Amino acid sequence: MKGERGIPVVLGKHFLVPLISAMLLCFVGCRKGPAKWTAIGPGGGPVYALVVDPSNPSVLYAGTRGGVFKTTDGGAVWIPSSKGLNGLAVRGLALDSNNPRILFAATYNGVFKTTDGGGAWTAANGGLEGSDLRVLALDPHDTATLYAGGSSGVFKSSDGGRTWNAAGLRNLTVDALLIDPHHTKTLYAVVTRGFDTWIWRSVDGGKTWKELGTKSLRDLFRDPVRVCSLAIDPHNTSVLYAGTADGIIKSDDGGTTWRSIGDLVARMYTWSGVLAPVTGEPATLYAAPNGGGLWKSTDGGTTWTRLVAGLSHRTVLALAIDPKTTSTLYVGTDGGGVSKSTDGGAAWKTINNGLDNTDVHALAIDPTSSSTVLAGIRYGGIAKSTDGGRTWNESAINLLPPVFDVPAIVIPPGKQASLYALAGASLRKSADRGASWDTVYGRSGSTPVSTFSRALAIDPTAPSTLYVAGLINGVCKSTDGGVVWKCVNIGLGDAKIQTLILDPTDQNTLYAGAMDGIFKTTDGGGNWRALKNGLAAVSVRALAIDPSSTTTVYAGTLKNGVFKTTDGGASWHAMNNGLTTLNVDSLAVDSTNPTMVYAGTYGGGVFVTANGGASWHPMNEGLTNARVRVLAIDARAPRTLYAGTDGGGIFRYEGTH
């Protein structure tokens, strides 16, 4: 390089490194302004906690898998409010009623506090470092006093969260924690001990605890005793309600004795149970059995009415009631985000605009239409967008109960080809480009698909040839669209397969990434051999083939970064220069420029290389969730990428074309 008068200019390495990075990022996405990721939904996901600002009930906070979200308009629009939470899931929230801009969040890494209504959070963990917490309780008369419960008992702070001290039930798991609103030294806790879950009480602010109603509960229920939810009647705090595996029980003496009430008998023994009396309405009570939707009693629990019209997800994890208009209810669900009712639960409407909290484990872009994107969502089925992610529609696969996970979706070339997906413990097929899905049962009503299945591959030259692989059964093959299956595992042993990829130029060549390395077949699965040279026993999470030279393959691993082979797997080399995290869950190769490769990492976001892996650079501008599970490139517009995350939905990146 020469200066103004032709004098050579020497560039030092401290100048060259940022220059090269800038040139690379410009190559990836220079436009009129810097390219960056944009969150595009779909909204929803698990919501563990909800709190309403009592002074302004249009303000609501949601504790989710992806942190905290806030709405200021009753749920019409949500915005992320998680700065400082570092990607932690929030399982409990407490709001200071005297100053509603102060909130506390319970996470598996202690307590966090905000003093500006969720604008920024800071750790409030003095004495709590590393504590796995689930529930919070704030003293309504002295909001500097709060309690936290989790896997190690109860903790107490008397200075607004600056310092904490143990407050009993040491080494026991606390699933619920309540303060008597009239006698705030009195606390109640739902505690797991062994196979039983009991109710405990403290009358001295956590100094001592007593197990309540042991004989009464033993007389009522089979072994083990399972209590999952607890509520105090705000009108008479000697009255307690508890949700159990055998329905609702009630105590009129502060928990000393219990009796069954009502006709609501449901499985409430998991932590998802919710129970809530309504302040100002002494006989009104809401209950949410696990998987049973929301129920309402207006006679103190004697009779119950089910309230599920419009409620797409039936496992309710959280309930919030507008204190000024008690007919307005909000529920947080296990995978469907937040729903709202303005008529006491008679009808519900999903309100997830901006609540980008889903776990997206599969992405597929229709090769015949760039605007059509399919997403596999944990607890949520398959979502489809026909406008590049601007709006999403849940497909017919999202029938109740929601499937546990959707780890794979495959769209073969050709407009007439059927689509396939792994969903829950079944193989699903769509003949209408993802608008609806049917289960592929196979002959005799069985397939090799299970909840342990992880990968799905289709021969693009013969779309009726399918491969399914997973942690059990190895690799299985069907040549008739899933009617008849044969497991093809010679050479695999008991390998636990996590990813599977087919050579686009040779339908008989496949690579399988397992928990202990990579295997290859060149005869359509007839025989497999381990590829160990340079790779050893690493856990392989992702595979990608260079479409212009199919002997070049990239492997993403757990804790060991990226490996590359240029000789069809005969030898492998680590390619980790520039990667700041070595947990690589996804890989994607640009088909128009195969030296351009993208790596999605769990915790470090997305990295890009322009030289086939020789060096990597982060490309995370706008990517507010760094737990990237899956990447997809639009084949028709290869500078458009999609990233599916855990707890953050999908992000889209659009560079120059």
Describe the protein in words.
This protein is mainly beta. It has 2 helices and 56 strands. It has a 4-stranded antiparallel beta sheet with strand order 1-56-55-54, with no helix packed on it. A 4-stranded antiparallel beta sheet has the order 2-3-4-5, with no helix packed on it. Strands 6-7-8-9 form a 4-stranded antiparallel beta sheet, with no helix packed on it. The protein is elongated and about 75 Å long. The model is unreliable at 1-33, 266-272 and 396-401 (pLDDT under 50).
Stated plainly, the CATH topology of the domain at 541-657 is called: Methylamine Dehydrogenase, Chain H
Summarize the biggest pleated sheet: 4 strands, antiparallel
Q: What does the average pLDDT come to?
A: 87
Total of DSSP H or I helical runs spanning 4+ residues:
2
Task: Classify the beta-strand content into a percent band.
Answer: 35-45%
In CATH, the homologous superfamily of the domain at 541-657 goes by the name: YVTN repeat-like/Quinoprotein amine dehydrogenase
As a percent range, the share of helical residues equals: under 10%
Distance between the termini: 29 Å
Q: pLDDT under 50 segments (min length 5)?
A: 1-33, 266-272, 396-401
The SS-based structural class is mainly beta
Number of strands: 56
Q: Over all CA atoms, what is the radius of gyration?
A: 27 Å
CATH class type of the domain at 541-657: Mainly Beta
Strand order of the largest sheet: 1-56-55-54
The global form is: elongated
What CATH architecture of the domain at 541-657 do you see?
7 Propeller
